[in-house]
Amino acid sequence: MIRIIAVLMLVIPGIITAYGIKLMRDSLFNELTGIFLHTGLQFFIGFIFFAAGLAFIGGFIVHRDRKRQAERKNNRSRR
After folding, report:
1. What separation in angstroms does the CA of 29 have from each of 11, 17, 26, 33, 40?
2. What is the pLDDT of residue 70?
3. What are phi and psi of 29, to 5 degrees?
4. How many DSSP H helices and E strands does the chain contain?
């Protein structure tokens, strides 16, 4: 169950990141999405989505790696 939650924690920001890339690409090709008023605003919001999703995924991976290193050090000292 915990692994499913961990996968969902990575999939949802991944989808947000992909949508941010799509928004930036569409604004570069001058294709305006209906909810935005200007392509510059669309690019900015897309960049925010991209950066936020990437930061969350990166932070999750760094946190997990640091946690595993701490567990390895504890296991070595117990032996």
Report:
1. 27, 19, 5, 12, 12
2. 78
3. -95, 10
4. 2, 0
